[in-house]
# Entry
Amino acid sequence: MTAAIAPAARRFCFILSSARRNGNTETLARKAAEHLPPGATQHWLDLIDLPLPPFQDIRHGSAVYTQPQGNERVLFDATLGCTDLVLVVPLYWYSVPASAKLYLDYWSAWLRVPPGDFRQRMAGKTLWGVSVISDEDPRRADPLVGTLAITADYLKMPFGGVLLGYGNKPGEVLADAAALERARGFFRHAPRAAA
Ligand SMILES: Cc1cc2nc3c(=O)[nH]c(=O)nc-3n(C[C@H](O)[C@H](O)[C@H](O)COP(=O)(O)O)c2cc1C
# Structure
């Protein structure tokens, strides 16, 4: 008789990027995280606690990117250690907050850090987004959604989409009943397969 092999548990990593703590986007993400797939673990990091220095583009010089250290190392290990990466990104000027953009800029370095397997290891992880906006027109978040969707596509990551809510002052997203309803099923739906 062959023993059944249980599928490995999924590991969700949530990266918070609001410039304030306990904001709407974290609130919405935590609501969604109450409904992770069975057996899934969750790990939360806040970019407020893990500031990164300005990113340097040395791609075309003689220097090479070295192994990440300090806060960069924490983020690098968390990024590679999860099966599902959740960018918790309030809408700032129609895009992701600067801290989230800086974190993504570092991926350009990580693609080149020896042994150079970042791209290969990212493929197969699912990228998800959670966002809150203060505009009543959800299409205002299209640039943010596009940034995440195309980033997933570039790294051949399945894309889970963006859970979008409405709110401005902290806590206001709790009045967005439709967003809270979507949060219940958000992490249970199948992501769009990588292109
Ligand atoms: C720097 C900054 C830029 C913002 N830009 C937008 C924007 O372009 N469109 C929008 O609808 N709301 C914008 N907002 C409002 C936030 O998206 C809104 O307050 C949201 O609830 C903040 O999420 P948080 O509570 O998780 O920090 C902006 C807020 C800040 C601080």
